Amino acid sequence: MLALQKTEPRQGVVLQEVAALPEPAGREVIVTVEATGVCGTDVHIAHWTPGYESMERAMPVTIGHETCGRVSRLGPEAPPDLMGRRVTIRPSVLCHACPACLRGDEDNCSGRRGVGIGRNGAFAPEVLVPAENCVPVPDGLDAELAALTEPLTVCREAVDTAQIRPGDRVLVLGPGSIGQGIALFAEAAGAGDIVICGRDDAARLDRVRALGFGQVADSLGRSLAEALAPWTGDRAFDVILEATGAPSVIPEALALLARRGRLVVVGIHPAPAQVDLTALVRNHQQIRGSYRAPVATWAEVLAFLQADPERLRAMISHRFPLYRAEDAVAMAGGKQASKVMVIQGERS
Ligand SMILES: [Zn+2]
Ligand SMILES: [Zn+2]
Predict the structure, then answer these.
(1) What are phi and psi of 92, to 5 degrees?
(2) Are the CB atoms for 240 and 218 separated by under 8 Å?
(3) Which stretches in the chain have pLDDT values below 50?
């Protein structure tokens, strides 16, 4: 079968013929893939930015982890009612052997392997996963929408980490699909003003407006403070959520944050950021990191998708067939794209 793989610890990904998957064993299943989103992680893996060295022992490995499909084969011990079901896949495969797993604290497994990172993923016709990683998709949600679940769990976790209170003034840095999802969940959490800022980001800011957020700024050629001056005259931001991965943004963001404000860092940063800790202390500010969401978030995000599917479809800017998966990753790395999907089945 055709698969988009990372084969060597250097720049690039390659679409190539690989062996068919083995039959599922035990509680494993095979999912016939319908739609898989291109994540910022896939772009980082293709560019081989630092932080993904642990993938080396899995290479060659098929990438792609934001996926939805139908269960098409069951291992002998997999739950029979999964057969034929449309599912989205939680990419984090537990080891069931580390101290956290053994005490039932599975959200903190230290031996996990990510589908599409540490084991074969979904830029392929089929993917093999444990049945416990399959999350049934509610009726009425099509595959490309359900494939948004994983990135939206990241967004929801960021907003939960920020502890947004009704009326909070929120700034979202980075208008890509993670920034867009963060804005949606901030709105649902009752935020007051939600301002979204990009840098040289006309196409993605247009998509932000299409999602219903009218307060946008572009900091091209000026500082963040200058770009956001229309909103910061009398009051700083209570919460800033950063989804740019640009270390230089962190000190600029702290300067726009209110006393006792929270800066939540979601981007993956290729280098350390400089922080004036004395100012942080005197302003009683907090910097919080946010990453993978707990298992319980998945059902909440699927319900969120089901409540307003057509609004969320606006996050998807481009669709490619599997045989153009390399182009899909290249597109996702550029500033024209919001969520790029590799579509392998019918859209319904
Ligand atoms: Zn992702
Ligand atoms: Zn474990």
Answers:
(1) -85, 105
(2) no
(3) 347-348
Using the mean position of ligand 1's atoms as its centre, give its distance from the Cα of residue 37 in Å: 8
What are 341's two structure tokens? 């999907």
Separation of alpha carbons 310 and 140, rounded Å:
11
The CA 222 to ligand 1 mean position distance, Å, reads 30
Q: Structure pTM? A: 0.95
d(CA 13, ligand 2 centre) in Å: 29
Q: In whole angstroms, what is the distance from residue 191 CA to residue 175 CA?
A: 17
Task: Return the domain boundaries, the chain.
Answer: 2-148+315-343, 152-289
For 271-302, the pLDDT digits (tens) are 899 999 999 999 999 999 999 999 999 999 99
CATH superfamily of 2-148+315-343: Medium-chain alcohol dehydrogenases, catalytic domain (3.90.180.10)
Query: What is the chain's length?
Result: 348
pLDDT of 347 reads: 45
Q: How far does residue 168's CA lie from ligand 2's centre (Å)? A: 37
The C-alpha atoms of residue 144 and residue 147 are separated, in whole angstroms, by: 5
Q: How high is the pLDDT of residue 345?
A: 65
Q: Closest-lying ligand to the alpha carbon of 44?
A: 1
